Amino acid sequence: MEKGDELGRVTLADIAREAEVSVSTVSKVLNGRTDVAAATRVRVEQVLSDHDYQRATRGGGEAPLVEIVFHELDSLWAMELLRGVEAVANEHGAAVVVSHSGSRHAPGPEWIEAVLRRRPLGVVLVFSSLPPEFKAQLRARSIPFVIVDPAGNPDPDVPSVGSANWAGGLAATRHLIELGHRRIAIVTGPEDTLCSLARLDGYRSAMTMAGLAVDPTLTAFGDFHAEGGFAQAGRLLELPDRPTAIFAGSDLQALGVMEAARVRGLRVPEDLSVVGYDDLDIAQWTSPALTTVRQPLRAMAEQATRLILALRNGEAPEAPTRLELSTTLVVRSSAVAPGRP
Fold it and tell me: Which of 125, 208, 220, 328 is deepest in the core (most CB within 10 A)?
């Protein structure tokens, strides 16, 4: 039987015969059962992939679930993404399953077994990409997936929804330059994360276009959390020629930066201007209110959820989709001209 030959009539018996296993073993693999030997599972998955086998939906018996998978949940940033998924899922009468697994690069092996058993309508992933075997397993069961706010550069065959991180970094830094700052530091996220590097590139571009030197001692990598912002800002503020402004790669980092300034007797914004990133709800309630770059997290998650539902219904284009939503500078009170009382 050639790949794609009479695709609609490929049966479990055909798959079992070619993989040299029983029909019940194929069924176990399709349903994510763990009582199948690893080598056997790989062989069956390969045959399923060779024939582009798509398991038929179960009609009224299919659980109306949309799943979102995080590598970390303990942040307001994650809650914004969750709200976006919930909004679209609710419109379609679906519940939301939240999973926590792996690192920022990919979910762990325990997750794939569980999601195959749940068989949701689709999966929103907050990661860089998926291992090839995970993609094959999800596709074999007609479970579409989309990466939102990718930590890295997703594979060409993986649809994703992100935001204009370079433009956001450029806008934040330009704002500080236009206020008159020349010694501007950046505390960004992890060095192996795409959005961190894009925001850093935006910062560097703004400095270069303004004819300002990019001082490597004013660049710090953190973890997008307040503790990291506090630690990295502490080092920057102890420099003999400390910065007059700091662009933080997230609002939570900006809170840490502001606290690092406070414990050193520095006032924000009089002694140190601070700009954040994300525009979480908390940004408007800081003292002073935080100037920040609005990243449309909820809208990104909404778009990702609509995309997986469209893929599920066969309405989306076959070519992988890359969406990048715009970012906006939100000017509040945490950044002013240097030396201004």
Answer: 125
